[in-house]
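User: Please run a holo structure prediction.
Assistant: Happy to. Please share the sequence and the ligand.
User: Here you go; the ligand is pyridoxal-5'-phosphate.
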Amino acid sequence: MLCKEDLALYGGKSVRDKKLYYGHQWIDEDDIKAVEKVLRGDYLTCGPQVSALEEKLCKVTEAKYAVACSNGTAALHIAMMAAGVGEGDEVITTPLTFAASSNCALYCNATPVFADVDPETYNISPQSIREKITDKTKAIVAVDFTGQAVCHKEIRAICDEYNLIFIEDAAHAIGTKYDGKPVGSLADMTCFSFHPVKTVTSGEGGAVTTNNKDYYQKLLLAHTHGITHDEDLMEETPEGSWYYEMIDMGYNYRITDIQSALLMSQLDKLKKFSDRRKAIVKRYDEVFSKMPEIIVQKEIPESDTTRHLYIIQLNSEKLTCTRREFFDAMAAENVQCQVHYVPVYWFPVYKRLGHKKGECPNAEKIYLNCMSIPLYPLLSDSDVEDVISAVKKCVEAFRR
Ligand SMILES: *Cc1c(COP(=O)(O)O)cnc(C)c1O
């Protein structure tokens, strides 16, 4: 039996010498060559790599259209714009997410409304969505939290019943399938992020996929100043080939050819990355699901998940420590965890809008007990066993 003093935090020897972080990108020589080729070519932006990337994203997600953009937050913003979200509208989302999922509603002067999550899957609860619908509700931003697909069947039914637009924040979920269909082909619009901590990366980058041509055209306009070169969309007859029109308000949310080449090279390895993430999750599940001190995330059978985060919840009935103590003890063992996420409406910006603690009790309870342990494809089998040893060591030392 270990005691607290055996933990590195209290003077003991740590499980590892070198620190592991909760996530890390994997860049190989092919990625570097792909970028180098673009740097030696004619186009750094607005060139052929961007359209090739969009085609590839359509292939990977089985969506009809894809618009690549500068980051996942921009993807959410242009999806809001394409959905026509504006002042007076309400957008329902989860508080257990990165702030961008609800900030995008604020960008459009709309009101974010938070629905609570399911206590076992941690994804937005369809029942809670129903309770938050008013005659002002315009759209739902459903987040595939940790990569697990939201329950599409139920959310689609709600959207059909109340005439709402279904936007999926799939920043965690590229590579995930729901009922055999890839995320990206299912919601009205699906938003991706390619930040380095996500499954595939372009440094910064994002995309929206859709099967709807009208949304597609609006997304294109929104991500490049509302400017079109398409004569059919213009009000005036073009005077010459230089002529373009700004027909909507828009932003510069474009991705570069440099980033596009990197992301295409990364997408070639999506299956490899995804398989390795699944294997690590399987090993973690095997060990942690048998430990009464640890609560693991429940998977719905419809989701074939490429997991972005592995979250453990501490069972406070079985442990003497606070989450902070466990987190710090893991860090001292050289396993640096992270916490996903502080409920978005706890932040000062949202408090100023009138939100209060207690709004979504399930999300708050998960936040208070959770931490994300290392999960990324570059982890070796022995790294994974080190993470497991560190968790076991901390559990033993803090067992009630
Ligand atoms: C990362 C992330 C975003 C934002 O993506 P960026 O590319 O960093 O702008 C949005 N939503 C969720 C759930 C995310 O994890």
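The radius of gyration is 22 Å.
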